[in-house]
Give the backbone structure.
Amino acid sequence: MTERAYNFAYLDEQTKRMIRRAILKGLAIPGYQVPFASREMPMPYGWGTGGVQVSAAVLTPDDTLKVIDQGADDTTNAVSIRSFFQRTAGVATTTATRDATVIQTRHRIPEEPLREGQILVYQVPIPEPLRFLEPRESETRKMHSLEDYGLMHVKLYEDIARHGHIATSYAYPVKVEGRYVMDPSPIPKFDNPKLGNMAAIQLFGAGREQRIYALPPYTQVVSLDFDDHPFEPSKADHPCGMCGGTDSYLDELIVDDAGGRMFVCSDTDYCEGRQAAGHKGKDAA
Amino acid sequence: MTPLLSVQGVTKHYGPHIGCADVSFDLYPGEVMGIVGESGSGKSTLLNCMAGHLVPDSGQVVFDTRGHGPRDTVTMSEPERRMLARTDWAFVHQHARDGLRMGVSAGGNVGERLMAVGARNYADIRAKATDWLGRVEIDAARVDDRPTTFSGGMQQRLQIARNLVTGPRLVFMDEPTGGLDVSVQARLLDLLRGLVRDMGLSAIIVTHDLAVVRLLADRLMVMKSGRVVEAGLTDQVLDDPQHAYSQLLVSSVLQV
């Protein structure tokens, strides 16, 4: 069987229509989790089946696709999803954030500010921010519909009581346009401020949980906190070892058996761009 | 004087079976009402209908709200009812596990209602939680311990603290002393009596333990097969029961 045997971007047109309807509804009600009939995809749950379906529904033949996994363009998940769409949709791909029109991401928002016309698609494992506090779906839906969000602060309270500060460092809950509390997918809380007022469209797809939600451009997104323990985006307090950048989110790498470590930008495109522009960190070869 | 809670003709059927039938009474501010009866007599059904956990088939439950005067809570919208449930009402479950979040620290449990009504200052919430732990005789040092590490009596006291922290006016209690040994029961009752007096609470207590109503309740209703068979002042009903079932109930208590 050749790749031509697939419809454009793998999914059939009816499925894409169904997903687009869910996306439109999600955009109309920012932060609201829209149920959709998630399909079996040729990859395991947890590898981004939700994001892939959303990407498939929004891709057009003229699009340029970028796929990132933890900020990197060259990790397994990113490479396999990129080649999946190369084969089934034949779209152009890139690793440059500014050249991409659709960016599928796992766990990061690119460092470079996105612009109007771009779409950022998130892979979401668990879309329900209240899930670990309230296991019943019937009850969490009711809590969303009645804006009964006291429980969310109980989680933050517990963090402070146990650790002395809000220790939640990823999947940090946000409130969208003063209404829905939303799980921003497991992005580090360093990225939370970028969610709000973003020029690009943000779409969230959870395949196993069969939910799609969305943030239209320039949506107000506020991270939850206490008056006396305000939200703080955090990152490792080091410059990047490769490009010397001090304002990007860093990965910590163990480089030898003697406890040696270096910090590098998790966004590979951003880091390479800076190195090409002549910036050098202390660990650069 | 306006009754705080006025129940009129509350009826609840489970299919062909009667849960409770045609129950009416008024509860005035500061009053404690006891509901006694054997298992299956409909007391918990009645309590759940009043507290908004069950929807009665017919009848009214009119509560004197702070803002809008007497309102029927059965026909009130769900958000309004939930707001009442976490401000003016409190519900103490028989099993503390039903009323507590077992995975959340004692402080978090007490603070939840405060945060649900909009408290957003950690230090204030924590100070209030610690204060309330003291009031229910739990050591303040245990504010960060989970209720799973508490004894049964402590869990029940924690549940009471969690409910009373927002200063409710009406407390529903479903067998608050069930499953506790007698000395712990006695202390809990003593505590409850103190809190009810000090805060001027009104309460509806469902129990099959006549000692509990003797100590706490001003008035008493005896239920049998979903109906109220006798009602009156607690001492009057317990010392001079008129209905055959009330007589049986009173005479069934073991005299040690």
Summary: The CA atoms of residues 6 and 187 of chain B lie 31 Å apart. The radius of gyration of chain B is 18 Å. The first strand of chain B starts at residue 5 and ends at 14. The longest helix of chain B spans residues 182-199.
